[in-house]
Amino acid sequence: MPILIEVVAAMASLAVGGVASSSVIRRLLELLFKKLGQKPSAPETYHARLARLTESLTRSSEEVDQVLDELRSVARARSDAVTALEQDLGSLEAKEKDLQQRITVLQNIPVPVAEHFVALMEKGEGRSARRDYLLFGAGVVVSTAIAIGLKALGLA
User: Fold this and answer.
1) Which of 42, 60, 69, 79 has the smallest CB count inside 10 Å?
2) Do both 50 and 94 map to the same domain?
3) pLDDT mean across residues, the chain
4) Cα 154 vs. chain centroid, distance in angstroms?
5) How many domains are there within the chain?
6) Do residues 30 and 40 touch, judged by C-beta distance below 8 A?
């Protein structure tokens, strides 16, 4: 019988402690929030939680749209750069073919012909230099004569 009394007393103690502890804990929390100057937060309602999550999803969607727009512009710029490179490559290939044809033609020319061509060019350049000196000298003489004539007439 003493064991039965102890078991009943323990059960009563647990029941009273459970009821008292929840009200005591609630009261202690209220005092703590009051001392901190805050109100205890009420549990978030389902509607408020859905609104918060929808707003977060909308913000995230806008950020993803911005990232996608930036990716699109980068891809467009790279595509334009590749197109420009392909065009440059095409023109360089055409120049290469032209130069290869010229090299082939020059390789088929015998060396004495090339030497003769160089000699002709040197003679032409020598004559050209002499002609330039003569024209320069004649220009100096004519301009001096004109200046003397204008001065003699009193126009200069």
Assistant:
1) 42
2) yes
3) 81
4) 72
5) 3
6) yes
Higher pLDDT, 87 or 45: 87
Same domain for 127 and 96?
Answer: no
User: 34 and 60: one domain?
Assistant: no
Task: List the structure tokens of 121.
Answer: 């060019």
Task: Kindly state whether residue 49 falls inside one of the protein's structural domains.
Answer: yes
**Cβ–Cβ < 8 Å for 39, 33:** yes
Which residue reads 């301009």 in tokens?
143
Read off the tokens for 11.
């059960």
Helix, strand, coil share (%) of the chain residues, nearest 5: 90, 0, 10
Q: Which long-range contacts (CB under 8 A, 24 or more apart) does 86-92 make?
A: none
User: Longest Cα pair distance anywhere in the chain, in angstroms?
Assistant: 159
Check whether residue 74 and residue 27 sit in a common domain. Answer: no
Token pair for residue 108? Answer: 């088929």
Q: What is the pLDDT of residues 56-85, one digit of tens each?
A: 999 999 999 999 999 999 999 999 999 999
Residue tagged 């024209």 (tokens): 135
Answer yes or no: do 70 and 99 share one domain.
yes
Cα 143 from Cα 155, distance rounded (Å): 15
Considering the entire predicted model, what is its pTM?
Answer: 0.37
Range of the domain at 91: 44-108
Give just the sign of the alpha carbon dihedral 78, 83, 89, 95: negative
